[in-house]
Amino acid sequence: MLLKIGELARRTGLTVRTLHHYDAIGLLCPSARSDSGYRLYNRQDIARLHRIQALRRLDLALSDIASLLEGGSTDLQTVIEQQIALLDLQARRTIALRDRLKGLLEHVAGNVEPDLSDWLVTLEMMSMYDKYFTRDELATLRVLRDTADKDVTSQSKPLIAQIRSLMDRKVPPESSEAQSLSRAWMALVHERMGGDARLIRKLDAMHRNESAVQALTGVDGAMIDYMATASIARRLTVYRTYIGDKELPQLFEKFSTCRRSWLEAAAEVRDMVDKGVDPHSAAAQKLCAQWITLAATVWGDDPDVHEKIRLAHEKEPSLLIGTGVNKEVIAFLTSGIEHLLERQETKTGTSHA
Span 3-74: which CATH code? Predict the structure, then answer.
């Protein structure tokens, strides 16, 4: 049985142009030609075309189909795995788009006459959040948004404007004005990120790296650093009532140097807590040792000072707001550090013996 290209196209539902393309790339070449020069397809050609169509239904690339039909290097398992990965990606994008549309619907529904510029700002901010946060994290952030203290969140724009005013007027971050605003700033960060150091770290990176976010929110790396310095100054004022005038200028410098390292460590601890990691495990013990080093860098090696700091955290819980350190993180570290110190004492005792 020999079929001309037009007849084969009609029988298979393909276009003549498609069959010409298959011929040009060597995917399906007619085995014969008529005396008049027409392409003629035999039974083997038609059978090959049906296999091509079957593989195309899997959305395989023509190059992969050719390799499969020729028994080349691209094996079927690899091709199937690639297709599954592609479909997984498409599914994630579809879900992300659905979530974004749902968020936009909430935004539009909340305004009788939604303003186009506000709507576009919301869309752009959602795109930025998608870039930095996982789907699970975005779901967490939506829950936090819905349960947030409205008094705290409603003050975000005025607060940012006040901070920017201080910065523009060159008011030092150690000033009483800046320290006062830092309390509200840390409360806002805590409220938006649920006190999770992992989310705080990502929010920090987003505001530092994305000029669009900076333009839309008024928050940039300079403002974050300004408020961090003000917050450290305010916290040290509180610590001072517990440890006295213990070299506060040096403490300020050490605290500032270790701030980001402490946030990173808190994020790792929070991750271990959520995953149910044993604080006595090797990975947790390594992190606890890192935490001890950070604490010693700031507070020194005097156990009495460390006990006073622990007491300060117990009596002044506001000290930890916005730092990513919560009760679960403290409990994990307490258990892990106690175990680490016991092991070190046992090891020391054994070596002396």
Answer: 1.10.1660.10
| Domain ranges for the chain | 3-74, 148-352
Looking at the DSSP bridge assignments, the partners of residue 3 are: 41
CA distances from 253 to 104, 170, 248, 261, 299 (A): 44, 20, 9, 14, 12
Give CA–CA dist 95/100, Å, rounded: 9
pLDDT in tens, 40-90: 999 999 888 888 888 887 778 888 888 888 875 556 677 677 778 877 877
- Give pairs for 177-180: CB < 8 Å, separation 24+: 178/226, 178/227, 178/229, 178/230, 178/233, 179/230, 179/231, 179/233, 179/234, 179/237, 180/234
DSSP code string of 215-226: HHHS--HHHHHH
Structure confidence at residue 115 (pLDDT): 64
DSSP class of residue 3 equals E
CB of 202 closer than 8 Å to CB of 132: yes
State whether the Cα torsion 141-146-147-148 is positive or negative.
positive
How many residues in the chain? Answer: 353
Question: How is residue 97 written in tokens?
Answer: 């788009």
pLDDT at site 114: 56
What CA–CA distances, in Å, run from 60 to 13, 20, 24, 72, 159?
Answer: 19, 19, 18, 15, 54
- Residue 353 confidence class, pLDDT cut points 50, 70, 90: very low
SS3 category, 303: helix
Whether the CB-CB separation of 74 and 64 falls below 8 Å is answered with: yes
